[in-house]
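Hi all, a correction to my earlier message: I attached the wrong file for Mobilization protein. Here's the right sequence:
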Amino acid sequence: MGHFSLDFKKAKGSSDARESDHIERKVIPDNADPTRTHLNRELVKMPSGVYGRDEAIAHRIKTAGIKRKITNDQVRVIRTVLSFTFAPG
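and the right structure:
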Protein backbone atom coordinates (compact mmCIF):
# COMPACT_ATOMS: atom_id res chain seq x y z
CA MET A 1 0.00 0.00 0.00
CA GLY A 2 1.27 3.49 -0.81
CA HIS A 3 0.90 6.79 0.96
CA PHE A 4 0.57 10.42 -0.04
CA SER A 5 1.21 13.88 1.33
CA LEU A 6 -0.46 17.16 0.46
CA ASP A 7 1.31 20.36 1.43
CA PHE A 8 0.23 24.00 1.12
CA LYS A 9 2.70 26.85 1.63
CA LYS A 10 2.52 30.59 1.11
CA ALA A 11 5.17 31.72 -1.36
CA LYS A 12 7.19 34.60 0.02
CA GLY A 13 7.56 37.82 -1.96
CA SER A 14 5.90 38.88 -5.19
CA SER A 15 8.30 36.85 -7.32
CA ASP A 16 9.22 33.29 -6.46
CA ALA A 17 12.01 33.01 -9.06
CA ARG A 18 13.74 29.98 -7.58
CA GLU A 19 10.55 27.93 -7.55
CA SER A 20 9.62 29.18 -11.03
CA ASP A 21 12.99 28.06 -12.39
CA HIS A 22 12.44 24.61 -10.88
CA ILE A 23 8.89 24.28 -12.25
CA GLU A 24 9.88 25.53 -15.71
CA ARG A 25 12.83 23.08 -15.74
CA LYS A 26 15.48 25.80 -16.02
CA VAL A 27 17.25 24.09 -13.10
CA ILE A 28 17.34 20.29 -12.85
CA PRO A 29 17.70 18.95 -9.28
CA ASP A 30 20.37 16.32 -8.60
CA ASN A 31 17.78 13.71 -7.61
CA ALA A 32 15.77 14.02 -10.85
CA ASP A 33 15.99 11.12 -13.29
CA PRO A 34 16.42 12.66 -16.79
CA THR A 35 15.15 9.45 -18.43
CA ARG A 36 11.73 9.97 -16.85
CA THR A 37 10.99 13.57 -17.85
CA HIS A 38 8.58 12.28 -20.51
CA LEU A 39 6.27 11.35 -17.62
CA ASN A 40 5.82 15.00 -16.59
CA ARG A 41 2.36 16.42 -17.21
CA GLU A 42 1.33 20.05 -17.53
CA LEU A 43 -1.94 20.23 -15.62
CA VAL A 44 -2.61 23.95 -16.01
CA LYS A 45 -2.19 25.53 -19.44
CA MET A 46 -0.78 29.04 -19.80
CA PRO A 47 -3.12 31.71 -21.18
CA SER A 48 -2.44 32.89 -24.72
CA GLY A 49 0.56 35.23 -24.82
CA VAL A 50 1.81 34.24 -21.34
CA TYR A 51 5.12 32.39 -21.25
CA GLY A 52 6.27 32.03 -17.65
CA ARG A 53 4.98 31.29 -14.17
CA ASP A 54 5.59 34.80 -12.78
CA GLU A 55 3.93 36.29 -15.85
CA ALA A 56 0.98 33.89 -15.46
CA ILE A 57 0.51 34.89 -11.82
CA ALA A 58 0.52 38.60 -12.74
CA HIS A 59 -1.90 37.92 -15.63
CA ARG A 60 -4.29 36.02 -13.35
CA ILE A 61 -4.35 38.80 -10.76
CA LYS A 62 -4.82 41.45 -13.47
CA THR A 63 -7.72 39.62 -15.16
CA ALA A 64 -9.47 38.32 -12.01
CA GLY A 65 -11.88 41.24 -11.84
CA ILE A 66 -10.60 42.41 -8.47
CA LYS A 67 -11.78 45.95 -7.84
CA ARG A 68 -9.68 46.78 -4.77
CA LYS A 69 -5.96 47.48 -4.70
CA ILE A 70 -3.62 44.52 -4.32
CA THR A 71 -0.99 45.50 -1.76
CA ASN A 72 2.58 44.23 -1.65
CA ASP A 73 2.05 42.26 1.56
CA GLN A 74 -0.85 40.15 0.27
CA VAL A 75 -0.44 36.48 -0.62
CA ARG A 76 -0.19 36.08 -4.39
CA VAL A 77 0.77 32.43 -4.61
CA ILE A 78 0.01 29.36 -2.53
CA ARG A 79 2.32 26.49 -3.41
CA THR A 80 0.55 23.14 -3.51
CA VAL A 81 2.64 19.97 -3.56
CA LEU A 82 1.06 16.54 -3.86
CA SER A 83 3.39 13.57 -3.67
CA PHE A 84 2.68 9.90 -3.38
CA THR A 85 4.24 6.48 -3.50
CA PHE A 86 2.73 3.53 -5.23
CA ALA A 87 3.19 0.02 -3.98
CA PRO A 88 1.57 -2.69 -6.12
CA GLY A 89 -0.56 -5.23 -4.39
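Sorry for the mix-up. The beta strands are 4-10, 78-84.
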